[in-house]
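Researcher: I'm preparing a figure for a lab meeting and need a structural model of a single chain. I don't have an experimental structure, so a prediction will have to do for now. The sequence is pasted below. Please return the structure as tokens so I can convert it later.
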Amino acid sequence: MAIEDFAMYLVIAAGGIEMKLQRDLYKHIQSQYPHIWHQAYSYNRQPGTPVRSDYIRAMLKNGELATNDDPKLRQYRQRRRWLYALVAVYFGLWLLRFV
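Model: Understood. Here is the structure written out token by token.
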């Protein structure tokens, strides 16, 4: 197998891990923060509210969930950072192949 095959498998695995992390996060938000879940997924949202995952993403970035010290949210952020760091390191190693 060539290095390109490993890169392809890494990207597929990273995408799968990212989807699992988001699915677990959404389940946690649905059970622990029903007001946020209702605001994101109800048909009678307040005017100007972004739809669905955009609303949750905005809450994670600079809303109530951004300043929250919930262990599940910290774990999600930490695992996501590690995943992106792993992909960046692998990409850097792939670039070193051309030097």
